């Protein structure tokens, strides 16, 4: 059976396109990959990614304007040195929650992801998107993109991933497109990426354990959002939240603050009127507030999909945030990060609004680590992995 990379001890390198805050990147890093470069046009997401991935080369540019040669050059790589191209092309044009406009310019970025695959020729690729992309109306868009890589790559059937089945506290469901070069990668199948038996379910209550419940609505600044956190019961999820920090990943000052003082960022409050507090307090678990449409989290169930809201180009609308299962308030950015599977040492954006947007747009690191580990463990050797 073929083995790749056995000729060297280097860490396999990936480039993350449309990197956002770094959900895919973190999962890849925890699986054993080196994040050689990240491309993100949103300056605020790039700021968050830069803090958490200080050794990664960051590109603030439009993916549609990149050539494969310029991308490799910016990443400091030569032809043949890139092992994987990963990324989540913007999904708003495909989402069931949006207008599903087939003419949405952002739909073209799905094509450009595969164009860069064809120009760079990595050993494998992984692209993430919303389930709506599989709608028949988007068949031409998908086929146009896949046609660029079919001759060289074996493209697996689309893999539907429900994050809670992989150990994350959210029901977020996404589609992953994975392909590999059969001349360089051992055989992969869609079944390999299904959730294994025995994965521990993590509902809301244990997911938020240790985070402060009483949040002052006046904690609105980055500085005031730093708060002490308590302990969590021992579990695979708590280990993922509390430690397992890859070498060179994370903001050193934030990690030191977390490790030495048990402090986490993002515990920012939201000011509610007395009327809203009373309404939220009267809601049963899982019940939706008729006015705000916010749902009160159920402590024994999973968090529904967290939404990102819109950017400035689409009116800067905030997404509806779930209501805490104990306190009559919407969740904090740090609670959203926990529910998405981000570790406590991962520093969030300094503003509440951008933190929520970035978390809502992200892939759960728990999911991305699982998928990337399948590729690495089945095909790569001599790679240092986290315990």
How would the blueprint of this fold be written?
Layout: E1 13-17, H1 23-31, E2 34-39, H2 43-52, E3 57-59, H3 68-75, E4 84-87, H4 108-120, E5 124-129, H5 139-146, E6 154-155, E7 159-162, E8 173-180, H6 204-207, E9 227-228, H7 236-242, H8 252-261, E10 263-264, H9 274-282, H10 333-340, H11 352-361, H12 365-379
Parallel strand pairs: 1-2, 1-4, 2-3, 4-5
Antiparallel strand pairs: 5-8, 6-8, 7-8, 9-10
Helix pairs in contact: 1-12, 4-5, 10-11
Order of helices and strands: EHEHEHEHEHEEEHEHHEHHHH
User: Which percent range fits the helix content?
Assistant: 25-40%
Largest sheet data: 8 strands, mixed
Number of strands: 10
Proper CATH architecture of the domain at 13-198 and 363-379: 3-Layer(aba) Sandwich
Shape: globular
* Rounded radius of gyration (Å): 20 Å
Percent strand? 5-15%
Structural class: alpha/beta
Q: Count of DSSP helices?
A: 12
Q: Mind telling me the CATH class of the domain at 13-198 and 363-379?
A: Alpha Beta
**Fourth-level CATH superfamily of the domain at 13-198 and 363-379:** Vaccinia Virus protein VP39
Low-confidence stretches: 1-8, 100-104, 381-386
What is the residue-averaged pLDDT? 90
- First-to-last CA distance: 26 Å
Overview features:
single chain, 387 residues, alpha/beta, Rossmann fold, 12 helices, globular, disordered N terminus
In short:
With 387 residues, the protein is of the alpha/beta class.
Written description of the protein model:
It is a single chain. The protein has 387 residues and is an alpha/beta fold. It has a domain at 13-198 and 363-379: 3-Layer(aba) Sandwich (Rossmann fold), CATH 3.40.50. The chain has helices spanning 23-31, 43-52, 68-75, 108-120, 139-146, 204-207, 236-242, 252-261, 274-282, 333-340, 352-361, 365-379; strands spanning 13-17, 34-39, 57-59, 84-87, 124-129, 154-155, 159-162, 173-180, 227-228, 263-264. The strands form 2 sheets. Strands 1, 2, 3, 4, 5, 6, 7 and 8 form an 8-stranded mixed beta sheet that branches. A two-stranded antiparallel ribbon has the order 9-10. Strand 1, helix 1 and strand 2 (34-39) form a beta-alpha-beta unit. The longest helix has 15 residues, at 365-379. The protein is globular. It starts with 12 loop residues before the first strand and ends in an 8-residue tail after the last helix.
């Amino acid at each position: 059976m073929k083995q790749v990379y056995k000729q060297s001890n280097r860490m396999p390198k990936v480039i993350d396109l449309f990197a956002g805050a770094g959900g895919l990147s973190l999962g890849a890093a925890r699986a054993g990959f080196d994040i050689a470069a990240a491309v993100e046009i949103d300056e605020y997401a790039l700021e968050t990614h830069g803090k958490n991935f200080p050794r990664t080369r960051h590109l603030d540019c439009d993916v549609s304007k990149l050539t494969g040669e310029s991308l490799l050059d910016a990443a400091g790589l030569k032809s043949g040195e890139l092992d994987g191209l990963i990324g989540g092309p913007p999904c708003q044009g495909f989402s069931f929650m949006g207008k599903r406009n087939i003419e949405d310019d952002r739909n073209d970025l799905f094509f450009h992801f595969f164009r860069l695959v064809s120009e760079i020729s990595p050993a494998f690729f992984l692209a993430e998107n919303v389930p709506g992309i599989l709608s028949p109306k988007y068949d031409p868009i998908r086929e146009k993109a896949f046609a660029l890589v079919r001759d060289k790559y074996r493209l697996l059937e689309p893999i539907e991933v429900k994050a809670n089945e992989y150990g994350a506290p959210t029901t977020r469901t996404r589609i992953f497109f994975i392909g590999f070069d059969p001349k360089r990668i051992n055989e992969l199948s869609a079944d390999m990426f299904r959730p294994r038996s025995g994965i521990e379910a993590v509902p809301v209550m244990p997911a938020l354990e240790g985070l402060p419940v009483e949040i002052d609505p006046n904690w609105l600044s980055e500085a005031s959002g730093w708060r002490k956190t308590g302990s969590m019961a021992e579990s695979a999820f708590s280990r993922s939240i509390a430690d397992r920090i890859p070498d060179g990943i994370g903001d050193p000052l934030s990690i030191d603050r977390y490790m030495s003082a048990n402090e986490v960022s993002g515990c920012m409050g939201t000011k509610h009127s007395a009327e809203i507090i009373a309404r939220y307090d009267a809601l049963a678990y899982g019940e939706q507030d008729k006015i705000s449409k916010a749902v009160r989290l159920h402590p024994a169930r999973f968090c529904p999909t967290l939404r990102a809201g819109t950017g400035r180009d689409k009116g800067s609308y905030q997404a509806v945030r779930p209501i805490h299962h104990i306190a009559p308030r919407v969740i904090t950015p740090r609670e959203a990060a926990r529910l998405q599977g981000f570790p406590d040492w991962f520093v969030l954006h300094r503003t509440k609004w951008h933190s929520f947007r970035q978390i809502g747009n992200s892939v759960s690191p728990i999911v991305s680590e699982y998928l990337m580990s399948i590729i690495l463990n089945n095909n790569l050797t001599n790679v240092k992995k986290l315990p």
